[in-house]
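Many introductory courses stop at the sequence. We go one step further.
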Amino acid sequence: MNKNNIVRSWSLVSYLHTAEEIEVRLQSIPILSAYAYILHDMDINENGEIKTPHFHIAIILKQPTTLNRICSYFKGEETDGTPINCLGKPTISNSAIYDYLTHKNEPEKHQYSETAIISSNKQKFQEIETQADNTFDILEDLLNGKQLREMVRLYGRDFLIHYNQYKMLAFDIKEEENI
């Protein structure tokens, strides 16, 4: 994974010790839109031993940022100077990562209760998923030469954020059709 990815939704693992520490760090993120987290203290490693307790954190931001920037909020140091690490990756599906917090779709793993999830807005994780996927319509409009001003009016902020990706894909489709 490219550490320079700039995205709005992240799935993180932090080894901070308490929910209070996580909460303080979350509240210090100025571009935070929504979060959900849970303590995993019953996960088992390959040797059959309980893993070091850790927090799984799902966040949605108001604007995209890098993994290094978002993880900087969840790093720290033990009293002996040992670093407290944060790992992360872009979230492809906000509802899927919300389900992962409890291992809902992974019966071989310890099943955590949904009541153990602390969230600022559970609906936000589901709301994002229910938005219509208008990628096909956007590509059709680009290929048919619809004016950009009209496309912005039709598709809004998402179109603006992903315009270059849509444009490259439309170019690839046109190129493929000319072969």
